[in-house]
Amino acid sequence: MTADVDTILDMVRSITGMDYNRAEVSASTSFLDDLSLTSIQTVDLIMAIEEKFGVEIEDVDLGKLRTIGQTIAYIQDKTS
Amino acid sequence: MTVDSWYSAALPSGLGDEFVDYLRHLCEPSYWQENGFFLHTRWGVLLFLAAMPVVWAFLFLAPRRWWLFFLTSISLVFIALTLAPWPTGGLLMPGASELPIPADVAKAWLARLVGGSIYAVLIVAALAGVYQLARFTARRSQGAERNSWRPLLAGILILIATYFGLFKFQEYWRDAGSQHAAETAVFLPDFHEAGLAYMFIRSVHFLWDSCRGHIRNASWWRFLCWMTFFPNFRMGPIERYHDFFTQIMRCRRRVCRWDLFHGMRRILQGIVKGVLAIFIAQHLGPALLADNQRYLEAGGIESLPYVRFWVMAWTALLGAYFLLAGYSDIAIGLARLMGYRMIENFRWVFLSRNLNDLWHRGHISVSRCLRDYCYYPLVRRGPFRRRPLPSSVGVPTKRAELRQLLPPAANYFITFMICGLWHKPGINWLVWGFCMGVGMLVLELWMWFWRRRARANGAVYRVLARLGIANGGPVGRMLGIVVTLNFFAVTLFCMAGPGAFVMIVWEMVRRPFAWLF
Questions:
Q1: Could you report the predicted ipTM of this complex, rounded to two decimals?
Q2: Interior angle at CA A67, CA A66 and CA A70, nearest 5
Q3: Which residues fall within 8 angstroms of residue B490, CB to CB, at 6 or more apart?
């Protein structure tokens, strides 16, 4: 399983139940500012990522995952 | 209501003239001597600017291995000169001349210097304790089977007990001091003024990350240098250990004229904010309270003009913002003069469209620490942890979603009440934390409500979305900003005590609907 924008966006869709315009979403899209995730939803997303990609994300690293691009880079770093 | 009557209801009379006098007073040296809002020093930031040539000289000329040692030394000198709280210390503290010190000038300076040095030594001793505690718990954590959390929790509890124990000890001595003559009074520091509150958060970060293996082989000198770094020692922003050393070791190669320009610009911004904070704290706030007293004596809280409640709330909000943001600007500017790019502490905070956003824009370094070391561990592993809905459920019902949403929201209450107690252990800040928790809970329910509406995509929702109210539209964002800022401003009434807070909020809610009854 490779992490890319579409995969992460699908996970966000399943958590929020909202439909986002794919054309407006890129690696620099922010979870908080652009996708309006709350703190609890961010935790949902992290748990989903841990389950899907088999990585363990430390609490102190959660704050670094602010955009889709940062999350993809973090997953790739962990899985490699 | 005419503009004049509205103005007289909102603000005490003569405030405009007082502001002009205040601005005029800025041109006098005595203002800068008395109002050392930065680090509570006489002459404030000017003292630090005067020392910058020495820092630059070391930055460019001293061998690399001496850089951290020098930085630590100069930080400790500043702590000794500016933050020592008791009569013999606080060489440059405002009001130091009023304390019982020897009349002879030379003896007075010597006494303050000795007192300041003792204070710096005590800070170093306290930090040595934190360092040893972190090393001990890290060894126990990493040696334990399955990377146990117990040593870490024990270490954190020791830190918390020490912090609150010291606070209570301070309160006890302050009370004892006020009951006796001034000569026997013992002046212990206010935790925020003396930098202990931020030292506590840095200690938690160091202990936590050491135990979890994020910080390895931290030497005593590096730890001391990071902990006592003088620009942000007293009030942040809080730099993480690794971020600090990534930056500080680059300083020697990076400082350039743009750093000087941006550093000076930020310091000027900070001074302007500090000047406004002092006006609010020393002129506007007391004038409002005195004028309120006149109304209260005349006819109780009912006689207070409605607009006055909002003016008081916003005065408190702006006072807190100018003080913290001003201090952060100066800290960031001072660090930038050395080529060090410090984390931003405030980012367009008055554009926060909800409480969650507010805590991502305001007091950023503290809220990040709270999030990383309190909220996330609680919501992922605590008793009210987040449990995902099973994927086999399909479209969840309203009740199932609420059952999943509400328990983790308890973590907001816990986190913000801890945040309140960190500000000052006492019922006022505890109530403030509870109000923040209520605000976050309401926000979660509000977001959940709109998510359901968006999924249903009904006619009303589509109309609201077209009008820019729903679906993150501009009107909705504007309304969010107004509600968020006013909510936060009103929660600051908690500082008046729980009883007064309830009475004020009730009056603010009741008054607009009084015509109904």
A1: 0.83
A2: 90
A3: B313, B505, B508
| Beta pairing partners, A30 | A67
Closest chain A C-alpha to B380 CA, distance in angstroms:
7
In degrees and rounded to multiples of 5, residue A67 shows phi and psi of -125, 170
Secondary structure element (H or E) that encloses residue B126, with its range: helix B105-143
- A36 touching B (Cβ < 8 Å): yes
Residue of A54, A59, A40, A24 whose CA lies nearest to A68: A24
What is the predicted pLDDT for the residue at B87?
A: 44
Structure tokens at B109: 């300076």
Answer for the pair A16, B451: CB distance below 8 angstroms, yes or no: yes
Chains A–B, number of C-beta pairs less than 8 Å apart: 62
Q: How close is the nearest chain B Cα to the Cα of A59, in Å?
A: 6
Residues from chain B that touch A33, judged by Cβ atoms under 8 A, are: 357
Report residue B98's pLDDT band, with 50, 70 and 90 as the boundaries. Answer: very low
Q: How confident is the model at residue A55 (pLDDT cuts 50, 70, 90)?
A: confident
For B33-47, what is each residue's pLDDT tens digit? 666 555 455 556 777
Distance from CA of B400 to the nearest CA of A (A): 14
